[in-house]
Amino acid sequence: MRTISKKWFFVTLVVTILLTTPIWLLVSFIFEPTNENWTHLAKTLLPEYITNSLILMFGVSIGTLLFGVYSAWLITQYQFFASNILHWALLLPLAIPAYIIAYTYTGLLEFEGPVQSYLRTIFSTQTVLQWFPEVRSLGGAILMFSLVLYPYVYLLARAAFASKSQQIIEVSKTLGASPLRIFFKVALPMARPAIIAGLTLALMETLADFGTVKHFGIPTFTTGIYRSWTGFGDTTTTAQLSLLLLAFVITLILIELWSRRQAKYFTHQKNQPPITTKITGLKAVIAFIICSLPILLGFIIPTSQLLAWSINSAQTSFNKEFFELIWNSFYLAFFTALITVIIALLLAYSKRIQDNKIIYTLVRITTFGYAIPGTVIAIAVMILFTTFDNYIDSFMLANFNISTGLILSGTLFILVFAYTFRFLSVSLQTIDSGLSRIKNSMDETAITLGARPTRILTKIHLPMLKTSLLTAFILVFVEVLKELPTTLILRPFNFNTLSVRAYEMAADERLADAGLPAILIVLTGLIPVIILSQIMRKQHA
Amino acid sequence: MKKILLCSIIFVLSFPLLAKEEVNVYSARKEQLIKPLLNEFSRTSGIKVNLITSSEDALLKRLQLEGKNSPADILITTDAGRLYRAKVSKVLQPAITIKMQNMIAKHLQDPEHYWLALTTRARVIVYAKDRVKPSELSTYEALTDKKWRKRICVRSSNNIYNQSLVASMIAHKGKKFTAKWTKSLVKNFARKPKGGDRDQIKAVAAGQCDVAIVNTYYLGQMINSSDSSQVNATKKIAVFWPNQQDRGTHINVSGIAITKAAKNKKNALKLINFLLSDDAQFWYAQVNNEYPVVTTAGLSETLKSWGKFKADTLDLDKLGLFNSDAVKIMDKAGWR
């Protein structure tokens, strides 16, 4: 057991250290003295940035919980009109990038947009409707983020409601507890770790966003990071601000850890089929509304707007180049997802079999990437690899008179590396929560019977983890498909993706032309989401 | 027979590798506003163009980090300040030929021949025709007057064109004046800055504000848009050229430079020559309503309709030099 542990320890150590290099690089900036740009920001804008970010996080927490938790509960407990469609349709908004949904709602709700124009004809007025809410506001941003990020909460909460607590819920029912009481007193506390894991992902993504808050004109922490880079051209302050953002994130993660430590539940049987109660009448209508509202707002409305935009431009701009864009986006997302899931499995499993503080901490640190703005990650990765390449080049030149040039920089390799670093958290959270549902005693029994960790993994855990692995794969797949800043900065020559195309059109304020690539992102992301839900359904059936 | 077939396949496949005439471009111009021209260049010259588009800050950082091993031959930006930043970061070389220097005005190129402008864009005032008389307008400075209280729309200070407008004010009038000017201007904002330049134009048309500061080509795009609501919005507004009695209207440029690490310098120069040709210059006027830098090139109908104007001939280097001061001044003034 000792030697096996050592091997796992060593492999995990190497992988985590390599994967966290961008963080170590950022951390090295702590030791640089702060300059006048930092002082300037601290004096003028930092308080506002922090306040806005905090309000945003608070609002998005409430929004994603409202959209995600109730729907997950209803879907797992009841049968009502279209509930088996809503079951997977609730995941759809995941396929829409936050900045795209922001653009579509701006288009819909602005002064010239269809909604206000219609209202003006009703009230027969030509001027601005003073009472009409401004979508480009802090409240609007909270709504946008909540609409595309609640699926994380929904996904994890649904899994928790469906498996972990099912038996206890049944017992509570038999004991005569009312549905509301069961929800608040039994199900919710038991699902809390899963819900908070989903919430953490949503909040990390909110913190890292720049596209949406920029369009809405809300200065947040990320705005400050960009400003110190583009406005001042100051890498040091950029890195130091990113570190401060990390402090935010570490707090989040500590809260999550604390919540997990509070509750450790195991089920005694795997895949307990959830017993759903059939509801009809008013109850069914209310349930239907609660579950379809997030889909309507987060998917149907924005997608319709995108379709309307792209129909106008599709005839002129859809050509064979778009197949190349789709293919590039697809294979990049596919391979990154595959690699990320393998690494996440290795780390999650390694953490499970060894009770080692160092490994535990390092694995935790690999998840920070999700909260760091893509641009910061891209620059950090670029610094690392160009330094490496140039070092090899000068070494080879000095010793063998051969110039190797840039070996890795400017290739897809560093792009995939950056993605893996950024999205490892997504797959690790999912696999981790899947693993935690498998009782430790099962491992112990296997060990007693003389099985080695690799055998336990392949024979016991992998079959039980199938759903978690697939979920992790698809989440990363969709994330990479949507990803923008890292791709934009690190991509090789002549390499374009759907999200880059959508962005370049939107950044040029050509929203109608951004419609087509945006809708293709959504469609490409849709396929795996539907596959995922079908497989999950089969598992339960 | 098989061998011959195999050999010919290998020969055919390796053909693109043998045809090694190429040039590598890092461009901050969006793909749709550069690719058609590059394709045309490849067609006429036989030189393959490899392209990466990204933000200028990212491309500059990439050039710096890649150092002498950078594959890039050419850097294209949409802001003079970034060209200045690239020059002082020592990633460019002074390669602009005398022939090119003579083709365009002095203030549109680097005095040490590191870069030159390809097109210019003017930052103008647009006003609501039914609520503002052009005689009420005069200069950027005059926009701070009390009569404009809560009547001005302009986008965020994150935007480079606002940063360079303020930088040009610093260059002409000094930091102290500019700080005061910015503060008073912010007081006159009708709303918190949000959206892009098109949104400001729409806001004027919708009556949310009476004047806006925007780049001309966004207005041009709207006028020529297939979206009727955008076209209708432009009918309610008109262009005013500020500061015609003194230094002229503030302009920024899109520009081009050859990198220090360039390995295909000859081809890079050919590409610059091509982009300065009358046809290429007219293409920018036609497609994006930017002003050509070569005076012999034609103008689009939209550009003609706005008439001639006097442009600020400030050394564009200054926009880069004062960029960071401009951002700080805007921060202090509360321009978000």
Low-confidence stretches of chain A: 266-270
| C-alpha geometry of chain A | globular
Q: What is the helix tally of chain A? A: 23
Portion in strands of chain B: 15-25%
- CATH homologous superfamily of chain A, by name? MetI-like
Query: How would you characterize the largest beta sheet of chain B?
Result: 10 strands, mixed
**Strands of chain B, count:** 10
Quick overview:
Chain A is mainly alpha-helical and 541 residues long. Chain A contains 23 helices and two strands.
Describe what this molecule looks like in 3D.
The complex is a heterodimer of chains A (about 550) and B (about 325). Chain A has about 550 residues and is mostly helical. In chain A, about 80% of the residues lie in helices and about 0% in strands. Chain A is built from 23 helices and two strands. Chain A has helices spanning about 1-20, 20-25, 35-45, 45-75, 85-90, 100-110, 115-120, 140-165, 165-175, 180-210, 210-215, 220-230, 235-260, 280-315, 320-355, 355-365, 375-400, 410-435, 440-450, 455-480, 485-490, 500-505, 510-540; strands spanning about 80, 275-280. The longest helix of chain A is centred in the middle third of the chain and has 37 residues, at about 280-315. The two termini of chain A are about 40 Å apart. With about 325 residues, chain B is an alpha/beta fold. Chain B folds into two domains: about 20-120 and about 250-300, D-Maltodextrin-Binding Protein, domain 2 (3-Layer(aba) Sandwich); about 120-250 and about 315-335, D-Maltodextrin-Binding Protein, domain 2, CATH 3.40.190. At the A-B interface, helix 3, helix 11, helix 12, helix 17 and helix 22 of A face strand 2, helix 3, helix 8, helix 10 and helix 15 of B.
